[in-house]
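Tutorial, part two.
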Amino acid sequence: MAKAAESTLSSADKAAALALTPVSRETEARLDRYVALLLEWQAKTNLVAPSTLPNLWTRHISDSLQLLSLAPTAKAWVDLGSGGGFPGVVLACALAETPDASIHLVERTAKKAAFLREAIRVTAAPGTVHLADIGDSVDRIAGSIDCVTARALAPLHQLIGFAEPWVRKGAKALFLKGQDVDAELTEATKYWNIEPKLHSSRTGGHGWIVELGSIERR
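Running the prediction step on this input gives:
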């Protein structure tokens, strides 16, 4: 099954992804190990939508890597609802050579948390997996946090609520959202005072990154 899935991957897609978001040779090797593991587990645990496998590198890996340019000095990250490891494991692979880097991956599903632990192990990336509900993660994670991320997890107004305790202490929030971002922002402003910066996704389509540097409850 894994070999069949691997055969759907495109070398052109990987090349396109790394042209959009270049990485070191060491990071590329880590990402290759991660992708191989994901394809192996995908056969028994649905980590990504099967329809996205042919464009795994651009749809998922490059999409995750682009966050680094929006927080170039961030070392301590929290990824909420890490699922198959996007963006958390990808960021951990990219920051493995950065001194004192740490990525906290929060996941409530035991099978996915087990996959994340194995991904961190095989890539030797600086990640810690927390098997927990998203709302319970703040008290579990010690130390200061530079950046909070989430991708395909929950409506924006809920994500803001999860991230607010860290943003209040100086973290930046970066949320990967789809084409309905305007409607989600309209809904979020009913509950929160925010000044969002919107960044169009480098990977094309209708993706957006919502950047928040301050959050106050209305």
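Residues 1-5 have pLDDT under 50 and may be disordered. In part three we will examine how such features are distributed along the chain.
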